[in-house]
Amino acid sequence: MSAAAVLTVRGLSKSFGGVRAVDGVSLAVNHGEFFTLLGASGSGKTTLLRLIAGFERPDAGQVLVGGHDVTKNPAYRDVLYVEELIGPETVNTMPKETIEAFQDHGRVAETLETGLEEARSLFGELEAVGVDLEGVWLTLEQEGVQKFADSFTELLDGIRAKRGELVEAA
């Protein structure tokens, strides 16, 4: 797989009731490439896309976006981070499957503020040993926002390039 890949899939597999829908798929899509999945009905195209998008958990394999593993680990609860982020005046967007899982076996409790005193104490300890927390927050905010901005710009550039190619081809 290419080091320049923006999307890398390694050995992705998924079964439903003993039927293997996706069997060890590996692929890489590089920046600026146009990628198409072709296959017969029932060949696993939609399942592969759902695995890449995070709507399904693979039985095996990895999905990397920009080199970062975004695979939903089957060992994790299917409502992970939903229960932990419940609090007054919060909004949590999630796929339909996660909503259904939460309705089935999620725990409703105000958890967002759990452990705040311990966190405040830890921050106090970090400041006491000279960690510049304001500088840390500022750096995290700037770098995080910049990464989102860069990704968005890259997406728009890719769309413009593809639109130009399609116009030229027409």
How is this structure best described in words?
The chain is of the alpha+beta class and 170 residues long. The protein folds into three domains: 5-69, Rossmann fold (3-Layer(aba) Sandwich); 77-114, no CATH class; 117-169. 41% of the residues lie in helices and 19% in strands. The chain has four helices and four strands, in the order ββαββααα. The chain has helices at residues 45-53, 96-105, 116-128, 133-169, and strands at residues 5-16, 19-30, 60-65, 68-69. The protein has a four-stranded antiparallel sheet, covered by helices on one side. 9% of the residues are buried. The mean pLDDT is 86.
Shape: extended
- CATH topology name of the largest domain: Rossmann fold
Straight-line distance between termini: 32 Å
Radius of gyration: 21 Å
Largest sheet: 4 strands, antiparallel
Main features:
single chain; 170 residues; alpha+beta; Rossmann fold; 3 domains; four-stranded antiparallel β-sheet; 4 helices; 4 strands
SSE layout:
Elements: E1 5-16, E2 19-30, H1 45-53, E3 60-65, E4 68-69, H2 96-105, H3 116-128, H4 133-169
Antiparallel strand pairs: 1-2, 1-3, 3-4
